[in-house]
Amino acid sequence: MSETLETPAVVATDAPADRYAGVEFGSTTPETAGETPPAPADETKPEPQAEAPKEPDEPKWYVKRIGSITAKYKAEAEQRAALEQELEQYRRTLATQRGETQPEPELTPDQIRQQERDKLAAESAERQRAQAFGETTKRVADSLAAAHGSAAVTAATQSLVSRAGMDFANPTHRQVIEDISELQNAGAVYYALANDPDAASELFEAPERKQFAMLHKFAASIEEKAPAPVVADPAPKTQQISRAPAPVAAASGSGRAVSSRSIYDSDLSPEEYIKLRSKK
Fold first, then answer.
1. Which tens digits make up the pLDDT trace of 176-191?
2. Is the separation of the CB atoms in 200 and 153 below 8 Å?
3. Residue 168 located in a structural domain
């Protein structure tokens, strides 16, 4: 059975076909049937975008309540962590007392060598710090001895230690001394602090971030006033009695001494008699 292609029948209409249908005058592009022509550009208006709905503000009491609950849970967590740490410390202490301490794990050769290197590095750093601080104190001592003598160095240091609480083992006190050594008038500042224990104790007890400013303020103030020296009370002077003979009274109106001897004295020697006789 053979298939044949049939041509669709064309329905004829009485009205003539309009070949200009769908064509807008002034344009060469025909429009597709069923589509609305676009509006002119100047007549289009952007549609207002819908604003996102704002979330309602939480009441103040609600915010405060949430904050208090959060703080409470945080405090409880910190307290629980502290209790656990304390309990672990008690366990270690009890195990030590009972002799139940676990032996420390054996170190590998590399770990042992690293510990030795760390120990040597720490000792070397400590020696360098001690040497640097020794040079710092020497600069202060030399400046002070040049102005007030070597004895003033010991007296000033003892005064600062006993009256102002200076401690060479305290890192902040050592830093103050290092700052003093960098001043041009280091010896004068050190000497003035020894004579003003109130200012010295206030400086040593101040926070570290304020000590540098306080030191420079004090250093500027000592140029206006000279402190009293730190010296011991002088020993009382004893009155010395002279053993020299009393001076011979001189005659009035004459610069020569007048002798009380005369030629009539019975104990005159021949020489004295001749001398007295020749004066007449």
1. 999 999 998 899 999 9
2. no
3. yes
Report whether 199 contacts 225 (CB < 8 A).
no
Residue 142: count other Cβ atoms within 10 Å of its Cβ: 14
Between CA 181 and CA 135 the distance in angstroms is: 9
| Residue 196 is assigned to a structural domain of this protein | yes
Whether the Cβ atoms of residue 180 and residue 186 lie closer than 8 Å to each other = yes
Q: What is the pLDDT of residue 53?
A: 61
Asked if residue 137 belongs to a domain, the reply is yes
Residue 39 has pLDDT above 50, yes or no: yes
- pLDDT tens digits for 250-260? 444 444 555 67
Q: Which residues contact 192 (CB under 8 A, 6 or more apart)?
A: 218, 222, 227
Mean pLDDT of 32-38: 52
Give the residue, 31 or 163, on which the prediction is more confident.
163
The pLDDT, as a whole number, for residue 33 is 47
Residue 165 included in any domain:
yes
Residues in the chain: 280
pTM above 0.90, yes or no: no
* Domain coverage including residue 83: 61-100
- The rounded distance, in Å, linking the Cα atoms of 35 and 124 is 93
DSSP 119-159: HHHHHHHHHHHHHHHHHHHHHHHHHHHHHH-THHHHHHHHH
Residues 158 and 78 in one domain: no
DSSP one-letter string for 6-71: -PPPPPP-SSPP-TTTT--TT-SSPPPTTPPPPPPGGG--PPPPPPPPPPPPPPHHHHHHHHHHHH
Helices 171-181 and 186-194 cross at an angle (nearest 10°) of 130
Count of domains for the chain = 2
Please compute the mean of the pLDDT values over residues 200-216 and round it to a whole number: 91
Residues 192 and 147 in one domain: yes
The reply to whether 142 and 216 lie within a common domain is yes
